[in-house]
Amino acid sequence: xxxxxxxxxxxxxxxxNFPSELFINGKYQxxxxxxxxxxxxxxxxxxxxxxxxxxxxxxDLAVSIARESFNKGHWSNLSPGQRKKILLKFAxxxxxDRLELALLDxxxxxxxxxxxxxxxxxxxxxxxxxxxxxxxxxFDDISPSSKEYxxxxxxxxxxxxxxxxxxxxPLWMAIWKIAPALITGxxxxxxxxxxxxxxxxxxxxxxxxxxxxxGVFSVLPGDGPITGKSLCLHNDVxxxxxxGSGEVGKLVLQYSGQSNMKRVQLxxxxxxxxxxxxxxxxxxxxxxxxxYAIFGNQGEVCSAGSRLIVQKEIENEFVDKVAKLSKNxxxxxPFDPESFAGAIVNTEQLDKINKYVNIGKEEGANxxxxxxxxxxxxxxxxxxxxxxxNVKNNMKIAQEEIFGPxxxxxxxxNFEEAISMANDTEYGLAAGVWTKxxxxxxxxxxxxxxxxxxxxxxxxxxxxxxPLGGYKQSGIGRDNGYQALENYLQVKSTWIKIT
Length: 499
Prior knowledge:
This protein is of the alpha/beta class. It folds into two domains: about 5-270 and about 475-495, Aldehyde Dehydrogenase, Chain A, domain 1, CATH 3.40.605; about 275-460, Aldehyde Dehydrogenase, Chain A, domain 2 (3-Layer(aba) Sandwich). The protein is built from 15 helices and 22 strands.
């Protein structure tokens, strides 16, 4: 593993190729219309490259090739062990090109090279390796029946999968979809977010190099209204796996009903509560985790602990601790390995964050820390870590997903009030609970309506084995764990009469 230094970052950056084409049938090509969009880096506001935009004809081509490949069994008929070897080879190629891929994500969406190189890439590689290793260790079933019959319950790949992924973790979120979808034998079409297409485009060639047959994996850069919608409405796509906003997630569901009733797996964000009880055994550890939970990755995290719900008697002490920690979490040069935070993904998202901060002030909440756009001289998009106090749970900053480094602090008096406040949201992706009372912790976990509840930590050490997904409007289905395989498999029952 290469050490992350200014020297090797500069050297790799100077030789980097910025991928811009569609990847279909094992090769790179321009879009049929040859239309493109400007890919702008939020680090400095400059155009990185011009990326070709996939339109309907490109989608039709990629889907038809994916279907043909699936029907002919080029990938789907390979044994699990054979697919395993190829995906493990893919993992080694990601490690080989680790710094280049990390730089592509940093340049594209502004997150720090420390995050992309030391977090996103290793976890992506781990994800691939875990699914590759598990696939030949899963067994089908035989139903209990009388001796005159035998019931076989088997699982088959669903077919053609469209994976539509967000910009906040460009490669990592793509791997979350394509690893379980590919290892189960499906053909996959990946549509990266238009804000961060480059690492997704690059891995097309890496999968081919690893041995994935031509046509099995395609990458279609483009936007939601054209490329994404075309995939979701296509009658020969069997499954759409989507991570993004709830607004778009609802459209994906509508498109499924308007077309072929394709299966839909959704992860649609959150407004996650992080509850600090007065009996928390280590307030310093809780404060550090709470700061990371909202200011890490510039707050651009679906499961961010964006609602800090603190018991009244410790509110001032605890918020002061988080505020002091936030001073070391300001954005800085994303290419500096020592930087904690980088740029906001684009000017639209920066304006959205700034708008919500102003709304919070108008609603009567108090800005304790931050609240400003910063580093304007760079030409990029940067925002300070921001903490609100005196927030009421009916305020917009407490109910709506801001997707930025903005923490809303609320207070409670007793257990019942804390749980009621935690559940009073349309979302249910994640939650945190800090207490030394194990009974209180377990009871809170049972009563909070969220897909993941962290006890005395917040997203600490979570790995591929743990399924992630939400209750309510945070989504349908799960990423990670063996549960994610269910998104991409059909169950078949075969009932045999024995004569």
